[in-house]
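Appendix B, Record 12. Input sequence as logged:
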Amino acid sequence: MTDRRLGMALATVTMILLTGCSDDQGAPDPTPSGSAPQPSSTPQPSATPTAVPSTPPVPTTPPGTSTTPTAPPTTSAPGRRMFRYPAAWPFTSEARAADWQRSYRSGGHQPWHLDAAETALAFTQSFLGFKDIKLITSRSIQGDEAHIGVGYQIDTGRKFTAAVVHLARIGQGKDAPWQVVGTRDTDLSLTSPRYGATVGSPLTAGGRITGVDEAIRIEVRQASTSAPLGTLCCVPAGGERTPWAGRVTYRGATDPVLLVVASAGGHNAHIERFAITAVRRS
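Logged structural output:
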């Protein structure tokens, strides 16, 4: 009886030990806290580095004239000309320029619009009324931009440049006309109001001048009207790059773009130099 009980007890102990060994073999090894998981035995393909495109440099814009700074580049369809300035004279918009193109193509109307020099002279003589300015003193045309020097000649035969007129082609096609957009200033500058600024009446015009006993006349004009909208005569000035300023009142403005004109003279000719800037009507 005693041997039977001893055998049963030994059998029970043996079963417990076998069960405990089976559980230990199936349990995974714990991962230490904070350690990275171990990589699998199958090698993984290395990631191909993605090339980061370099940022193209921002193109620098060449400096423009004091009254017609170069406008920022404009995205356009291939082959399409973009007019980037206030439409000063003679056309008040690209649509008006297209109207002229149609009349030119059908009947050859006003062909001088296709010549930058003739357009500059028409602007100074016919529109501004500076009859003494009859000469082309310089000419630079690059693509759709032109700088035309206009001036006069005194009795000794010496020629003087009154202003360098800045023009740009407006509209589409090979017969796109030239448009006056400003001037390149030298010893008479017109820097206020800022080119392309929105203005109202009255406005203050100003800049710098080099000369002796000068009297600066200020006019506000628009392309659709032959007479000035407002005039101030005159602002006394003189010296070496001396600041000048004057306040002019105008009325009757209807065009979207106005022209501010500063002129001086009286020594060798009635008008010896002038400067213009284009502004937007408020």
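Residues 1-66, 71-76 have pLDDT under 50 and may be disordered.
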